[in-house]
Amino acid sequence: MEIIIDATTTQDMAYSGTGQYTHNLISALVSGFPKTQYRLFMYDTLSSTLEDSTLLKKNNVVVERVGECLPSFANTFTYLTRIAPKLNLILSQGKKVVYFAPYFQRGFPTLPIPSVVSVFDFAMPKFNYFSNKGRIMNFLRKREFWYRMHQTTKASAVIMISESTRRDYMDSFPRFPQKKSIITPLGVDLEIRNSKDFEKYLPSDWKRKGYFIYLGGGLQKNKNSEGVVEAYATFVKLASKASKLEKVPYLVIAGKIFEDLKSEQSRKLRALIKKHKIHDKVIFTGFYSDKDKYPLLKNSIAFIHLSLCEGFGLAVVEAMRAKTPVIVHDGSSYPEVVGDSGILVDGLKPEAVANQMYKIFLDKKLRNDLASKVYQRSLRFTWDTTARLTHGVLKKVYNGTYLVK
Fold first, then answer.
1. Torsion of CA 314, 76, 116, 222, to 10 degrees
2. Which of 264, 318, 253, 315 is nearest to 286 (CA)?
3. Cα distance between residue 339 and residue 106, in whole Å
4. Are residues 304 and 231 in contact, defined by beta-carbon separation less than 8 angstroms?
5. Residue 119: pLDDT above 70?
6. E strands, 79-183, where?
7. Rounded Cα distance, 96 and 316, in Å
8. Region(s) of the chain under CATH 3.40.50.2000
9. Is the pLDDT of residue 404 over 50?
10. What pLDDT, on a 0 to 100 scale, did the predictor assign at position 19?
11. pLDDT at position 244, please?
12. Going edge to edge, which strands form the sheet with 326-329?
């Protein structure tokens, strides 16, 4: 069996969720199913996270270069101008292949090549947030999103990363055959490394005071970063009333995106912090190295994530793998991912979140119990499992099981 995979997102979207998904899944597929042949479509010169490994040198891997990377505003034409010509050449040679598009918005063939496409979430349509570059661009991106999404209904099979995503998809396309919507939960690939380098992101007295951490969030409406700040501000008030203000832990907000002061959303978040007079207690790490992610998570009191719409919640599972208690929004995909191992709470109610933060702050035994539970649950999420399920879908499509008639 030969599988063609669009691997371009490991280049121009390398550190996004999509790029990491593509990288980890391809790595697990190539290693786990060595008898399958893989043809990876990649740009000519742009570096890729895959090129840091020996994966591209494997006997069952061929890299097909598809030209230069287009500017971000022209990304919608990547398939038509870069990928389609290569596919047409392969078709003219009479080869039997199946095409896998890990990123549906980049485009993919609907016919005559049997195709599989991945869909992550419906956060953008739920919050009408398709672009942060004004109403006109938001409208154009919205049209593009739904055009691409409608195209997925013509694919041989559609991979969803959670039951929550599948429910949203079936609500939008109720006539789509249920058997062709396949759930393949994501894996977690967290470098377990106890380095002290992570301390450079933290205040000198972090060991005495401790900290909660918000990592893997963003400035999109669905991420509800404001909800995290509101909950923390309420928590500080609780600590103040209980005369524990001197030892109140910090809130660490990790990620390069929060340092972008050109972003209106970033400025609003900082204004909210200033309004609540907690600017001396909120720490922005800016960009952090992958090697520092584990110790940042491991040494925190708890991980907070209150996103209102999440396809899977990979950052949450990473925290769970680091044996860090998690406090997450009770909605979207979180209940099926976290189960009863973490704390589920309404992310739109700061008081409710703050109460749980205060509870876990005071009770060390509770923290240890939750740390053990979330770690055990995290072990079910592996990229080998994701690859096995994905390969099974691709094989059935290759054999004609899911073909569109």
1. 30
2. 253
3. 33
4. yes
5. yes
6. 98-101, 115-119, 157-160, 181-183
7. 39
8. 2-187+383-398, 197-378
9. no
10. 92
11. 60
12. 282-286, 250-254, 211-215, 303-305, 326-329, 343-345
Cα 204 from Cα 132, distance rounded (Å): 36
CB 157 within 8 A of CB 393: yes
Structure tokens belonging to residue 97: 């292949």
CA-to-CA dists, residue 30 to 3, 12, 22, 23, 245, angstroms: 11, 21, 12, 11, 53
CATH architecture of 2-187+383-398: 3-Layer(aba) Sandwich (3.40)
| 239 phi, psi to nearest 5 deg | -65, -35
Amino acid (one-letter) located at 316: V
| pTM, 2 dp | 0.91
In this model, does residue 231 exceed pLDDT 70?
yes
For the chain, the straight-line distance linking the first and the last C-alpha, in angstroms and rounded, comes to 22
Q: Is 112 exposed, middle or buried (0-12, 13-18, 19+ CB in 10 A)?
A: exposed
Adjacency order of strands within the sheet including 37-42: 61-65, 37-42, 2-6, 98-101, 115-119, 157-160, 181-183
Q: Is the pLDDT of residue 88 over 90?
A: no
Q: Three-state SS string across 26-74, please?
A: HHHHHHHCCCCEEEEEECCCCCCHHHHCCHHHCCCEEEEECCCCCCHHH
Fold for the domain defined by 197-378: Rossmann fold (3.40.50)
Higher-confidence residue: 12 or 245? 12
